[in-house]
Amino acid sequence: MNGDREMTVDSAVGTHNVPESVRALSSLPGIDYADRFTLSTDADATPEQWARAMFGDVPSLAELLIWRGLLGLRLSRGRSPDTVAGWRIAERGEDWIRLEAASWFLTGNLLVQAAEGRVSLGTFLYYDRRLGRSVWPPLSAVHRRLAPGLLRDAAAKLDDHEP
Q1: What is the pTM of this model?
Q2: Count of other CB atoms within 10 angstroms of residue 145
Q3: CB hemisphere CA count around 114 (13 angstroms)
Q4: Percent helix, strand, coil in the chain (nearest 5)?
């Protein structure tokens, strides 16, 4: 159980600090921003289960404020097996799932990987317009403070649902 051990989240910020093997799972034409947060965990779940535990089936009010309001992301409405919190499930592998969303000035990927007692959340952004370079940096500081809690909270949710 996760409650029995320290829930330390390791982080890597910057395109050169996120491994190339992870960046290669992005669908973006280039990566202007990259980060990756990793939690060691005993929770046994698929990458999609992890993504849904982190973000839910539909975006929360706070997520809508940030994703739609500040970033202008075009998100799907309502619950769907093809989306997680409005982000389109674009592709998946055995131990990863990639979510995609875009606005008129940036395109984003959220990459969730789960394997060997670890879960990771990676964020990759491509600035389609110059505005992305102005909007994202201040928001990225908030994002980096929130991401470890997303992983810890998801682990707690998944632990609560284990038999």
Answers
A1: 0.91
A2: 9
A3: 22
A4: 35, 30, 35
Residue in the block written with tokens 């809508």? 64
**What token pair was written down for 73?**
């992301």
CATH class of 2-160: alpha beta
For residue range 47-78, list pLDDT tens digits in order: 999 999 999 998 888 888 899 999 999 999 88
Give the DSSP letter string of 43-97.
----HHHHHHHHH-SS--HHHIIIIIIIT------S--TTEETTEEEEEEETTEE
Domain boundaries, the chain: 2-160
